[in-house]
Design goal:
By secondary structure, this protein is mostly helical. Helix content is 54%, strand content 5%. The protein has two domains: 63 residues, Winged helix-like DNA-binding domain superfamily/Winged helix DNA-binding domain (Arc Repressor Mutant, subunit A), CATH 1.10.10.10; 56 residues, no CATH class. Strands 1-2 form a two-stranded antiparallel sheet. The longest helix is centred in the C-terminal third of the chain and has 19 residues. The radius of gyration is 18 Å and the shape is elongated.
Length: 146
């Protein structure tokens, strides 16, 4: 399960993507419209800024805006930023690899093989899930609802 921090980060990024042509958006506006506690959102947006996904402008007309293009921001990167590894076992993690303490032989471990496949498919799906893709899916689902 993803953390609330990751979920809020995704919600804020989708919000900023939908309004990217409007210029910087105030934190208070995002917090209110996305129902995210403002203090929590401030820390999340700062992390996204440090990661080079967002930027901000101070003063009148200030706020946060996307620094990267929406099709360059994917859920795998956002999840790793806030929740760490996507893998279910440390021995199959891409960025956070650790050998399992009880492991006798990684190369012949059937469990590792299964969880490596799960990780690879999960990461593949999450990398394809860009902000552009998420909004396209929302539009498609909204069209079905009508």
């Amino acid at each position: 399960m993803i953390s609330k921090k990751t979920k809020y980060a995704i919600n804020a990024l989708v919000h900023l993507t939908k309004r990217k042509d409007e210029g910087p958006i105030l934190i208070s506006e995002i917090a209110e419209q996305e129902n995210i506690p403002q203090k929590f959102l401030e820390a999340i947006l700062l992390d996204l800024k440090k990661a080079g996904i967002l930027s901000s402008k101070k003063g009148k007309g200030g706020g946060y805006y996307l620094l990267k293009e929406p099709d360059e921001v994917n859920l795998a990167d956002v999840m790793r930023l806030f929740d760490g590894p996507i893998a279910l076992l440390p021995c199959v993690s891409y960025l956070y690899y650790e050998r399992c303490e009880e492991c006798k032989d990684e190369e012949t471990c059937g469990q590792r093989d299964v969880f490596l496949e799960v990780r690879n498919k999960t990461v593949d799906l999450l990398k394809k899930a860009t902000l552009t893709e998420i909004i396209a899916r929302e539009d498609k689902l909204a069209g079905k609802k009508k």
